[in-house]
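Hey, I was hoping to borrow your eyes for a little while. No rush at all, and the record is pasted right below:
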Amino acid sequence: MSSARQQGAVGSRLVAIGVVVVVAALGGCGGDDASSDETDQAVAAAMDAYQEAQAKGVDLSSGPCIAEQLPGLDEWVADVAHDPREDVDDQADNQCRRYRDGDASHFVELTPEGALIRAE
């Protein structure tokens, strides 16, 4: 293969790799995606809500919603669930109404012991 053809092939590969990288990066830029800073704030606020619920003697074993709105985070709720999930976690009474109704687009799930399951 000639030097010019080799350089052309290498250049084409680099362009293809660049396109893949850009597409992959843009794929994570959805409108409803929360920033990592916002997610960290939500997790911290959910942990606070958990502590408050626990201090008030709320029964967390059934997986209740512990915050219909996290302070300063209008789109976030905090819910207690089991890991792995149990049937009780899918009961509407144990889920945050604002998330079910579409009024909040993100949630933090904690176990009944206060461990993070996920934040989305």
In short: The beta strands are 65-67, 76-80, 106-110, 116-119. The chain has two domains: 1-30, 36-119.
